[in-house]
Amino acid sequence: MALTAHSTIGEWLNDEVGGPLVRGLFEKTGADPELLTPVLGLPLQQLVAMSQGALPQSVVDHLVRAANGGEIPEDTGTEGWTEKPTSGRFSGKTVIVTGAASGIGKATASRIAREGGRVIAADISAERLDALKAELPDIVTVAGDLTQQSAIDAVIAAAGDRIDALANVAGINDDFSPAGETTDAVWDRVIAINLTAPFKLMRAVLPIMEAAGSGSILNVSSEAGLRGNASGNAYTASKHGIIGITKSAAFMYGPKGIRVNSVAPGGVATGIPMPPNMSEYGSGRLAPFQQAIPTVATAEHLAASITFLLSDDAVNINGAVLASDGGWSVQ
User: Fold this and answer.
1) What EC number(s) does its UniProt record assign (predicted)?
2) Does the active-site annotation cover 239?
3) 235 has catalytic annotation
4) In this structure, are residues 235 and 186 in contact, taking their beta carbons and an 8 Å threshold?
5) Buried/exposed code over 94-110 (b: 16+ C-beta within 10 A; e: otherwise)
6) Secondary element (H or E) of residue 323
7) Interval 176-200: pLDDT, tens
8) Residue 248 catalytic?
């Protein structure tokens, strides 16, 4: 069978032609091919997203040509899991998605739009939002820093009088520092983006949903929100906090027809960009746990979990925390 961009990384590495090509690419960049171990089940195409822009599509195309005598074979893209949007699942619904210009947020916004929803796509990057709108012309984009009330007000204004659902996806990582090393700057920024901004958006949409007698909110937590060994002090606190506000709001607003749930991702191929000046002590302490990640998901995997809980398919689910982590949290 020909190697394509949708053949898994594991299939490439195990192939007598593809293996040397992929390993050679990593040797040129100075990266260790062992870094691919958690993502062997993902398609080679995923390397583009995983690289955060460092690896262009042309490199993957070059690998495919090199493995197939200079040609790119017909690629059905059917290997492994494939996203299967549900036509009309969000028809007539207005859905706010934060962090919508990249990663999990982009995959979520795209799926909701393709399932008929009116998407209000919020992100701090105006440039990336413009690129998203070029792909999905019907979405409404709002660029702004959601730690600022003015940006939250702009999102609510763009949504209008009806808001059926909110997906709080935007987030950043910390520097892996333990409590004794966490600076005020790291703490304040991580808590502001990961916890305070989602809370303020919830606070803004809840009266609108309450007046309508229905609504659905999805807050993205993390495997780090389920226990204390997956990330640094600030990130872990912020994601535990997300679970707290999710459960509190579910309890308070469930009787009013509003469901509030959370998804806790594990390793995701798009990842959250790591900041500079990582804590050497914290990174060392966390490394054994991070190396135990059983599998790394794609953004589309997480979007499947998120859109399920946001949609009416999850009609009887409220206050749930869905660990969408490939089983990492049960180890």
Assistant:
1) 1.1.1.-
2) yes
3) yes
4) no
5) bbbbbbbbbbbbbbbbb
6) strand 321-324
7) 999 999 999 999 999 999 999 999 9
8) no
Nearest partner of 314 among 167, 191, 130, 98, judged by Cα: 167
131: amino acid identity, one letter: A
Backbone angles phi, psi at 285, to 5 degrees: -70, -35
Q: Which of 221, 222, 231, 279 is catalytic?
A: 221
The answer to whether the beta carbons of residues 13 and 26 sit under 8 Å apart is: no
Say which of 177, 200, 231, 235 is annotated catalytic: 235
Q: How many residues does the chain have?
A: 331
- Residue 116, Cβ density class (10 Å: 0-12 exposed, 13-18 middle, ≥19 buried): middle
Task: Give the residue from 116, 14, 103 showing the smallest Cα distance to 67.
Answer: 14
Q: Is the pLDDT of residue 13 over 80?
A: yes
Give the DSSP letter string of 268-304. Answer: BSS--PPPSS--HHHHHHHHHHHTT----B-HHHHHH
CA-CA distance, 283 to 213, in Å (whole number)?
Answer: 46
DSSP structure class, residue 8:
B
Considering the four listed CATH numbers 3.40.50.1820, 3.40.50.300, 3.50.50.60, 3.40.50.720, the one that applies to the domain covering 94-330 is 3.40.50.720
Domain range list for the chain: 9-67, 94-330
Tokens at 191, concatenated: 């808590």
Choosing from 239, 253, 279, 311, the catalytic residue is 239
Handedness of CA 219, 224, 227, 228 (dihedral sign): negative
